[in-house]
Each structure stands twice: as C-alpha cells, then as structure tokens.
Amino acid sequence: MRIQSLDIKNIGPFREGHIEFITENDKQEKPPVTIVTGENGTGKTIILDAIRGLFLGYYSRIERDIVSNENDFVVDAQLIIDHKTKALKSDSLNKDRNNGFITDDLNFNFLLTHGVNDKSKYPGWVIDYWTSKLATDGFDLKSLTAPKPENYLLNALSGIHQNVEVTQLITYFDYLKSSDNDNEKKMGEALFEVLKKVIKLSLNNGEFKYVARKTLTPIIEQNGKEISLDKLSSGNLYLIQHMVSMLGKMYSANVLSGKPLKELCHTPGLLLIDEAENHLHPKWQKTFVNNILEVFPNLQIILTTHSPFIVASVENSRIYVCESREDHAEIVDETDVYSNKPIDEILLTPLFNTQPFNEKISELIDMRKKAIEEGDNKKRDEIEKKLKSINPQYFSYFDVEDLLSNLSGK
Q: Where on the phi/psi map is residue 409: left (φ > 0), alpha (ψ -120 to 50), or beta?
C-alpha cells in the first residue's frame, strides 16, 4: 500500500491543497521520502492528521477537529494497492461517532480499529505514526508476554508507543531465540539480529548485549558500561522505542502473511512522522531517515520538520512548504529549491533565513552587498573596515579581493 496523492479542501488553515507523494516517474517499491516543512502555525501536522483521519474514518477519529467548514470540505487520498489505484475520500462527518470521517471504504477503518479477524484478511502492509512525545510509563515487565499478531494495526495511528511494550517485544524475541522449535529459534535469531542493528544505529558508541532473564530487563552496553533502557537519553530512547515498535509490526506482518523469514523487514508500509527533529542532536537528524530505511527499506515515509539538517539529509526527497497568507495557508511544492541541496544553501533560503553570523554582522554584510550593487565604493570600504575590526581573521579576504583586483588592473 502506498499513498500517491492527497487533496484537501477547508481543512485546518488550508482552503485547498494538493500533495503529490508518488509521480509516474517514481518507483512504487521505493517511493521518495516526502518532507513537509514551514514556519510554526502553517498547518504541517494537519496534513498528517488528514491522512490519519481518513484511515481511521468511520469507527474512530483523531484527537482534534481539523475541518474548518463541515458543510464544504474534502479529504481525498489516492492509494496504490497491489499496483492498482484506489480512492479513499471523505466529505462528511459521522455525527454519531465523535465526528470521524465517513469514507467510501470502511475496510481500512475497520482494520485500524478492530484488528485483523483472520489471516485471510491480512492487508499486506503496515502503518505507523510517530510523534515527538515520549512515553512516561516504566520499562519494568512482570511476566513474559507474547504479542498478538492480529492486533498489530490497533492504535497504529494513535502515536502512542509505551516503554513497557518495548521491553515486551525485546524479551519475547529473546525468548524465541532459545526455543527448542527450529522455526521459532530461526525467527528469534533473525529478530535478535535486527534488534542489534536497530540499537547500534540508535546509540553513540553502544550496542545491545542481552536480556537479564531473572528480571526480564534488556541490557545495553554504552561507553563500556552495561545499562538498562531507562538510563538512556531521551534521543536514544526515541529512536529505539519507535524502531522496536515498527519491528514488532513487521514481525506480526510476517507471521500473518507466512512469507519467508528473509522478508521479515521488507513488508511495504506507510510511516508518518511528526516533528522528526525533536529529541535529536543535528548529528542524529542527518542520519535519522536513512537509518529507518536501512532497517525497513520498503516504508513510504511522510514527515514534518523544522530541521534543515533533515531536509538536506535525504536524497531525491519530495519537499513541500506550508506558507502563511493573510487569512489562510498554502501548500507549495519546493522540491526544486531544497531537494539534493547542501545544508549551507538550505540555511540561506527564505524559509530558514539563517545567516552564519549574528544580527549586526549579517546586517553589515547585506549593506556591503547593496553598496557593491550600487557602485558605492566609499560606503563599501567603510563597511569592510567595520567588519574587519569585528573579526579581522575571517574578513581578511577583503584584502585579498582588493589585491587581486589591483593585479588585474581593475
């Protein structure tokens, strides 16, 4: 399952909006990452909410009302399922069920609110929603608990990823690894290898060691010390918590589909990420998306972010900017402006407008540029003198420019 496009009308601050996630030139198996950015209050998260609302639909609803005109709104997603295009659309609300979207296909709504009744109804895909909120519950586990594959889609779009569920999954995968049943043992070993990869990608100088079975406690080694999950930083926890949760969904999908073990992490799916940069140092922001795709290569990722590091980190991404107007917002395709550009260029674009200097120096640089454009050499020299007095080492290149100009006879 892929989402190809989204059209909205009178949703949040948007009168109308269109996003093309996959074009005819894109490969459905490897869809581009879609990045939605923009200033605060321009509606980035509402785009994700519109998608979530459609999938939850008749039986449930998202946490807030995003429809700005109940009598005249549209949320229309074009999906690709088994290489065929299918519409999932709503233009009315279910007043009997907390204003959830009424869609023309209740199957999606049922799966995400009731689970998979039997294996024959397994949809063949996974879906997940990551928010920047960290769970506040504990990691302690009182007893070993096996996941229920048929429930893997329940709460998938709630954004809730509990700490104890991470412990449950890790300890269960460890349990399978020591099974006397050959198939269970192979599954456990495969899951354990993915766990080790996930945790290594999520930590600085750390790795997954073992599960202390007396206490059912996963143990991590970081900087030469063995620690439990609750001792990790919020950024490390965010990555581990969400990627282990996705691994749990992939495990369930593999069990339900009966596909070969080698395809464990290759189930196609849709991953929505809100405020992707939160909790992450710029170093981790630059590797975040690519690390997810290294473990789960068949995910279609749609994310919102304020981070130029994330915008610059993904090759051939599709980038949309939410821009504020007088009384509404618009979604603008800025792929040509931002995609495959270095971070220094992105920082200087109108959206981020981040000069490498403080406000005073930035203002003087702009004044110098204007003086050069107007041919005012006297003013340019005065400004350059001020800049060299502030930072003589950096702005010494002015003298080099003058020397080269004199040598060329200009």
A: left
0.85 exceeded by pTM: yes
Report d(CA 200, CA 207) in Å as an integer: 5
Report yes or no: 34 and 85 within 8 Å, Cβ to Cβ.
no
How many whole angstroms separate alpha carbon 338 and alpha carbon 347?
10
Q: Are 1 and 81 in contact (CB under 8 A)?
A: yes
How many angstroms separate the CA atoms of 384 and 399, rounded? 9
- Per-residue pLDDT of 303-349, as tens digits, reads 999 999 999 999 999 999 999 998 999 999 999 999 998 887 888 78
Helix, strand, coil in percent for the chain, rounding step 5: 40, 20, 40
| 292 CB-near residues (< 8 Å, 6+ apart) | 243, 246, 271, 299, 301
Where do the H-state alpha helices sit in 203-287? 234-257, 282-285
Return the structure tokens found at 1: 């399952």
Q: What integer pLDDT is reported at residue 355 of this predicted model?
A: 65
pLDDT of 4-22, one tens digit each? 999 999 999 999 999 999 9
